[in-house]
Amino acid sequence: MYTNIPKLGFGLMRLPMCGESVDIEQTKLMVDRFIEAGFTYFDTARGYIGGLSERAVKDAISSRYDRASFLLADKYSWWCVEDGDNEGFFASQLERTGVEYFDFYLIHSLTESSYEKYNERGAFEFCADLKKRGLIKNFGFSFHDKAEFLDKVLTEHPEVDFVQLQINYLDWESEGVQSRLCYETARKHGKSIVIMEPVKGGALAVLPEEGRRMAAAVAPDKSPASLAIRFAASLDGVITVLSGMSDRSQAEDNIATMSEFAPLNEAETEAVAAIAELLNSIPTVGCTACKYCTEKCPMEINIPSIIRGAYNSYLTYDNLALSKGRYKDITKGGALASACIGCGACMEVCPQEIAIPEYMMKASALFED
Ligand code: SF4
Ligand code: SF4
Fold it and tell me: Rounded to whole angstroms, how far apart are CA atoms 207 and 218?
């Protein structure tokens, strides 16, 4: 059904920035290269970059390309819909992105707790009705919970066309994300899959030294990120693999990888399993930099950068001075981790269920003098 869609999608959640604004000129160059190379699928959401991602779609894509030449995915995010006004929210998405329909539309970040919120808002019925009215072409949901719960949702909602799953070689066998089990569950229900976080928010792009050696031994001229993208794209039933590209070099690397896509060979498959084992032995925090939490934080703490850029780097490289330097850069002119008041608003929307206030306390203790 989706066989004509190229297997690399452009995730618009980490676009290049110029201060507080999206760097539209750089985004246009990335979009142009992506389309010129034959790729078509773009993925946005209201929450991405505080609403700027949807607007960037209009500026960089829909106002510059014929509607039939690209595919656009957007999402129904319960926390962005005010006063239960589903129609008003959807209309504002069409208006902001400058299109008259979405090719793919997803209930966003479904978990056991958000399922209740989506049911209260009639989200499944609303999306099914949008499809009937031709305003969306394919209806699905992005999922962040266990395989058993996915089985329940797909049993209760056989009408969905596809699911979007977090799949990467690090999470393939993990207890928390259950990439493999979720993948097998979706396939059991006959659903096609959009893959998100194939590089785990960039964590598989920059490996510790031993991991880099393992990757280079099997793919000497290729980036570690390319192995991760190819791992995801090698699976059956995949519509496309989303990569949240934030600069032109990442875009070029992804385009080069997927323009001449070849599934992982046996040696590469063994290598990624060994790298996963190595990385799983280092207890880092599984933040994917989706930034949903920063929207909610009343203290405007740059949570993902503190966790990933400073705290995880400390755990991975065991170099306090280096991580302190990173922390200083990240928090320059902004809130420190110690500004956290423990309100828990961030945890309500964190799809990775990270105990964020706890890590803010740890970061503050480690990196603040
Ligand atoms: S718990 Fe801390 S980090 Fe989370 S939203 Fe509240 S103040 Fe921000
Ligand atoms: S802490 Fe959670 S919500 Fe915030 S960026 Fe990381 S994964 Fe996303």
Answer: 15
How many angstroms separate the alpha carbon of residue 346 from the centre of ligand 1? 6
Distance CA 364, CA 92 (A): 39
**CA gap 219, 9 in Å, rounded:** 23
- pTM of the predicted protein model: 0.84
Amino acid code (one letter) for 57:
V
Whether 177 lines ligand 1, by a CB cut-off of 6 Å, is no
CA distances for 131 relative to 123, 125, 232, angstroms: 12, 10, 28
Ligand 2 pocket test, candidate residues 287, 294, 311, 312, most atoms within 8 A of CB = 287
Residue with tokens 């819909």: 81
Domain boundary among 280, 307, 341: 280
- How far apart CA 21 and CA 332 sit, in angstroms, is 18
CA of 36 to the centre of ligand 1 (A): 42
Let me know if residue 239 belongs to a domain. yes
Q: pLDDT digits over 115-144, tens only?
A: 999 999 999 999 999 999 999 999 999 999
Q: Are residues 341 and 268 in the same domain?
A: no
Q: Which domain holds residue 223?
A: 8-280
Task: Give the binding-site residues of ligand 2, using a 6 Å CB cut-off.
Answer: 287-293, 303-304, 307, 349-350, 352, 354, 356
The lowest-confidence range among 292-306, 308-322, 334-348 is: 308-322
Tell me the pLDDT tens digit for each residue of 49-77: 989 999 999 999 999 999 999 999 999 99
